Every structure is written in C-alpha cells, then in structure tokens.
Amino acid sequence: MFDSPTRWRLVMEYDGADFVGWQVQPEGRSVQGVLEEALEGLFVEPIRAYASGRTDAGVHAVEQVVGFDAQVDRSPREVRDGLNALLPEDVAVVCAEVAEPGFDPRRWVVAKRYRYTWLDRASRSPLRRNRAWHVRGSLDAEAMDAAARLLGGRHDFSSFRAAGCGAAHPVRLVKDIAVVRRDDEVHLDVVGHGFLRHMVRIIAGTLLEVGQGRHPSGWVGEVLAARDRSAAGRTAPPHGLTLVSVSYGTGPPAYGDGSPEVTPAGTAGAGS
Questions:
Q1: Lower CB count within 10 Å: N or C terminus of the chain?
Q2: At a CB cut-off of 8 Å and minimum separation 6, what does 231 contact?
Q3: Is the same domain home to 118 and 231?
C-alpha cells in the first residue's frame, strides 16, 4: 500500500449521444457516472473523477482528460485495460498514466480544441447522424471562415453566451479559429483556454447564417460588438460538436481569462 494516493491521468473517448453530458445529474446517464462506477469496480472503493471541463448532452470527445486519486499499485496498462473491461461500449480509456503531483485536469489546461461539423449534401447520412448537423444546400465555407476569424482574440463574448451560464465574466480568449471544407463536410475548429456555456455552438449557429448567405461575413463582427445574445444566431444542436484535444503545460497557466483588455470588436485576433 502507498502512504498516500497516486494521482492518475486518463485520456478518454466517448460518443455523447446517449449521455446527459460529462457531469453526474440527478437523472440520466452521465460519462462521469459510468466512469466512477468502473473506477469503484476496479479499485473496490468510491473514487471521484475530475475532467478538463464539462461536455453537454450529446457532445462527443476524442480526447477528454480526466484525473483521479487511487491508493493502489497497478501499471498504467492494467488501469486502462481494467477500466475498459468495465466501461460500456460508447466510452473508453485511450490512455492511463501516473500524473505529476498536484495535476489538476481543469486548472492546468492551456488550451482546448473543439470542432463543429456540418454535413451539407442533399441527402442525410445515417452513419453520421450523430456526428454532424445536416443542412441542405451548399455552405459557403470561405465566407464562414472570414466571419469566424473576426472572433479571434480576447473579447467580451456576451453575444455567444447562453442563459444560465455560471462564468464570472464573459471575456474569453480565442487563440485560433477557422472554417474549412472537407469533401461534403464543413468543419469549424476553435481553440481557446476556456469557453462560456454553449459558446462554440452559438458561434456555429451564427456562422451558419453566413454560410447560407443570409448575412455577409462582417455581420459577425457586429454580433460580437452588440454583446447581446439576441443579436447572434441559434444555438447549433449538440451532436455536431466534439472535444478534439486538451493541451497542458507543467502547471497552472500564468494567465487567466479575466483581463479587461479585449481585442476591438470586429478585428482579427490571435490565430488569424
């Protein structure tokens, strides 16, 4: 036995279609819930798991990072394979490793990358029905990209903040943002230190207006400057959103998102 628990780090992948999200809820099946059940089954004691951040119901993850403490002598391979033997088919541990002392999967985040996917062919795709938002009519990906780049930098993202958001302030840093076409799909990639509630999905719903020709690219700068949720487009459905990756340094980042200094609305910022 160890004198004190060992801090572990997991990289997890999951299909969010049948989950109420990452966090345990009073009702419904959560990713955190099924993982903690597996942890208890493997280590024979209740263990709390902490993620890099919450994902909403229906949102997927290619690389969700999770931390937990366990007072047990097991190899990383044994932890990975043991948990996968107990987890359901729609969630898996890709990697398990002993983490640095004090590692915090949320507070040590340097950047997260999210991707929103549209399918813009005429017919729907049964194989991608839970992975992309199907819209009829070709989207103008170049116009969407020009609009998206107006959101790069540190801004007050009140226009892209859902009701009920618990964040202390609406200022966020978007390090990189781009829209690209890949065959019959259009992808929005957003990289930032942290995001407001439904922020990426509201950005996606707003960019759709540009992609469908309802507004010019510059309109998104006006939406940002308005600092009013009613100025933006709809909230895109969750099934098109995926947490792609989470990046870390060697400790908590030296900066936060609360700086009052913001990039002037409607100008390109970091990553442009």
A1: N
A2: 159, 222, 223
A3: yes
Q: Is 56 a catalytic residue?
A: yes
* Radius of gyration over every alpha carbon of the chain, rounded to an integer in angstroms: 20
Token pair in block for residue 256: 């936060």
Answer with the one of 72, 98, 124 that is the final residue of a domain.
98
In this prediction, what percent of the chain has a pLDDT beyond 70?
Answer: 92
217 and 127 fall within a common domain? yes
Helix (H) or strand (E) holding 242: strand 241-248
What is the C-alpha separation between 24 and 66, in angstroms, rounded?
Answer: 14
pTM > 0.85: yes
Catalytic residue among 3, 18, 56, 104: 56
CATH, residue 78:
3.30.70.580
